[in-house]
Amino acid sequence: MDDTIKIRILASGSKGNSAFVRVGDTRLLIDAGISCRRIVHGLRDIDESPEDLDAVLLTHEHSDHVKGMRVFLNNYPETHVFSTRGTLVGCEERFPMPQNWTPIAADGPFRVGEVTVDPFELLHDASEPTGFRLDASGFSMGFVTDLGYWTDEIAEHLLGCRVLVVEANHDPHMLRTGPYPAFLKRRIASSRGHLSNEQARALVSRIAHPELEWLVLAHLSEKNNAPELAIDEISPALPTGDTNIIAASKEPGQPIELAPSELPPSTRPVKQGVLF
């Protein structure tokens, strides 16, 4: 088994979201909110292939998270797709029922290859949206974007991760004074909208720990935030200066590569997601 751990944010923001995670021989795509061409290019650019994906995990049905799925499934029809039933129903008009689809539920961990995937409920204006925690031997990662506020239950799922991808969508002042219409400002700032920098800082303060190696700030608004602003506001929540902090953007990011480390195994019960 290859011990490679590789993460690449292919795109992040209101125009499209997608991330690739490789743990050993298991390859996952989280969301497909950009074109199939961009997904394929983003994978091949780091010597990965869409044919080798073990699963696509969908967080929710909004276009900026699934709009590449129709063409992707046309080209790679055997791809395994994991999502809640609510997400699949919400996607009915966007792409046909996947040939290989497995329904998931919040707080129902399952296995894909070497990785335990633990979905958890988020508070967002979608049908059954989820975040994900990924655990494997020597690796743990939390992925949480598109939520209006966070709870203790959400924070519990993110404790102890080596890598965190956390939404930092907007600066409240920029949102209030920015160009968006009033109804959209209310939606973004609502309890089922998106996390502000301040809310993201509070969440990071709650879950950060000295062994956190990477913090990726995600889903930044191009109109209502700026990478430097988000990093400056959230960095003080980190307990040491040893954590790498970056802001993802609409362009593919540099791959994050890690070596496996000794971590205690997950004690949460799991079901087998894909049989090999």
UniProtKB/TrEMBL annotation:
Region (Disordered) location: 255-276
GO MF annotations, alphabetized: hydrolase activity
Domain named Metallo-beta-lactamase: residues: 15-194
Database matches in InterPro entries: Metallo-B-lactamas (IPR001279), RibonucZ/Hydroxyglut_hydro (IPR036866), WalJ/YycJ-like (IPR052533)
Gene3D superfamilies: Ribonuclease Z/Hydroxyacylglutathione hydrolase-like
Domain of life (superkingdom): Bacteria
UniProt entry keywords in alphabetical sequence: Hydrolase
Protein name: MBL fold metallo-hydrolase
Species in which this protein is naturally found: Persicimonas caeni
